[in-house]
Known about the structure:
The complex is a heterodimer. Helix content of chain A is 64%, strand content 2%. Chain A is built from 8 helices and 2 strands, in the order αααααααββα. Chain B is built from 3 helices and 6 strands. Chain B is an alpha+beta fold. In chain B, strands 1, 2, 3, 4, 5 and 6 form a 6-stranded antiparallel beta sheet that branches. The longest helix of chain B has 53 residues. Chain B is elongated and about 90 Å long. Chains A and B meet through helix 4 of A and helix 1 of B.
Amino acid sequence: MTTWKAILRDGLWVNNPGLVQLLGLCPLLAITTSVVNALGLAIATLFVLCASNLIVSLCRRALLKEIRIPVYVLLIAALVTASELFFYAYLPALHARLGIFLPLIVTNCTIVARAESFASRQPPGAAFADGLAHGLGFAGVLLVVGALRELLGTGHLFKGLHLLVPGATQDGIALASDGLLLAVLPPGAFFALALVLVIRNWIAQ
Amino acid sequence: MSADTTSTSVWRSTLTLVAFAVLATAIVATTWVATRERIAQNQEAARLAEFAAVLGSVAFDTLNIDAPQTIASPHTLPGTAPVQMFTAKRAGQPVAWVFNVQAQGYGGPIDLMIGITHEVTVSGVRVIAHTETPGLGDDIERERSDWIESFDGMRWRGDTDQRWALKSAGGVFDSFTGASITPRAVVQAVATTVRWTQRHQETLLAGELP
């Protein structure tokens, strides 16, 4: 029986999906041009991860090993479609910004990996906590890389937060008047992630 | 494993898969039913907002949003694709036209929506989609800069009209640092559309396609 603390530590630090397992890098690199974009993708991924872990764990005794993977695929596809519809209905501007990366959550290996390696062998409570921990771990990386790129690239932070939180700031917090354009271009994504990886490995040593 | 237990496990697998297919469909169907009205409203609102932006202060009572006229290629409007034309009318008379045209930018096509009044004055221009360089060419978006509003009220004063160019080329439009192709492409596309409308004004006012 895994303890709650160990589950949280595993998802947030020891086996962080973005920094240690290096999973889900395509959306991570593509969408992190700003904190708000990163937060949007983080929320959707967190929801899908928790829901899929919970459902898989509840049904774990009914699943024979031959059909486990097809069941995960079906389930994750349905949950991603549902969260995309939800974004389209309630956060249309953010839905337009995230574009293809919202449905592409379905290809994030973290989700199927957690379902197979954890949720299919653990009780629902622990499986949900594991989804939460790994979802938050992934969200943390998205937010740090997003904040780094937005700050270096535009000199602002939280620009467009009103798309996610009604009444919040639209222009963001200006910390500098201008930035280094490279940071918001695709190469900046690799540099920013590399920097975060270096820091993480440094601390872990 | 005996033949008997194998067939049991196949049956069990099949039934489990069927059950999960039903569950997955139920999840998607429930969300769809719960969100479809809001999604339809959002789409409608987004389209109306685009038209409202390019028609500016034009007062109209009908607009054929769902049934545009198509100007088939080859045509002398910007781009090679067929152009959709929407007509805003007031008391049955055309008061403005909205064109969906394509300019050729630096990173690919730029989809523009251009509103022109019946007196051939630009009522508004918006960029619908583009793939220009982020941070350099994307100042054509209204969300990022008010550059696109410098078209408002522009007319075509004949072939000696020098204003339809970037300031560096003697015109009236600001250029962007590090991106000269993008604004030039948009200026040229709007100029071409205005010129085309000027030339065909009588035909269009009569409600016909040139």
